[in-house]
Hints:
Layout lengths: L12 H10 L6 H13 L9 E6 L2 E10 L5 E10 L2 E11 L8 H15 L4 E6 L4 H7 L3 E2 L2 H17 L5 H8 L10 H6 L11 H6 L9 E6 L3 H12 L2
Parallel strand pairs: 4-5
Antiparallel strand pairs: 1-2, 2-3, 3-4, 5-7, 6-7
Amino acid sequence: xxxxxxxxxxxxxxxxxxxxxxxxxxxxxxxxxxxxxxxxxxxxxxxxxxxxxxxxxxxxxxxxxxxxxxxxxxxxxxxxxxxxxxxxxxxxxxxxxxxxxxxxxxxxxxxxxxxxxxxxxxxxxxxxxxxxxxxxxxxxxxxxxxxxxxxxxxxxxxxxxxxxxxxxxxxxxxxxxxxxxxxxxxxxxxxxxxxxxxxxxxxxxxxxxxxxxxxxxxxxxxxxxxxxxxxxxxxxxxxxxx
Length: 242
C-alpha cells in the first residue's frame, strides 16, 4: 500500500474497497491509491490527520474520502459516485483556516481533481459552488451550471437589485444582463466572471455578482464535462493561467 507524506497508513484495502462497493464503485485498488494521492497532494504539506472513506446515508450511491487536520485548519471531503455506470467526482467540501487561505491550495485541488477525472476516468467533476467566493472561483475555473435556467433567473434578480439599490449603474447592469440573453451559452457563468472592472464597482462586475459581499450567499451546482473536449481545454487553460 502506498503512503502519502505526513499521513498515517490508510485503512486496510478491504475496508476501503467495501465502502466503495456500497456505492456501486468497483475500482482497482491501484486507481483508488492514485486518486487518494492526488487529493492529499493538494493539501498543505504540514497537515496531519487520519482519513477515511465513508458512504453518505443521504446519498447512497456515493463514497467520500474525508479528512480533517488535527489543528482544525483543513477540512476536505471528496466523493466518487456512479451515474448510469459512469464515474462522477464530487468536490463536496474544502475549507481552510484563515492562516492558510489564499495560498493556492484550492486551485491545486481543482487541478488534481481534473487529473483524477482523466485517470479514473470520470465523465464529470461536480461541486456545489458556494461558501464565500467559491461561486466566483468555480465560474473563473470555467465550470458550467447544472441548472442554467434556474441560475440565470436568480442572476437577473441580483442584477436588478444591484441596479435598483444604486450599487451598480445601469451601464454595468446592462453589461451583465448581456451575458444572460437567450439562447443561454453553456459558459455564461464564466463570461460573467470575466466581466471587467467598471467605474464605481469594486474589483469586477463578476466578483460583485457572484460573491456574498453585497446580496447574501449565492450557490449553484457546477460541473466540468470531461466528454466535451473544448470545455476541458478551456478548464485546463483557466487552471494553469494566472
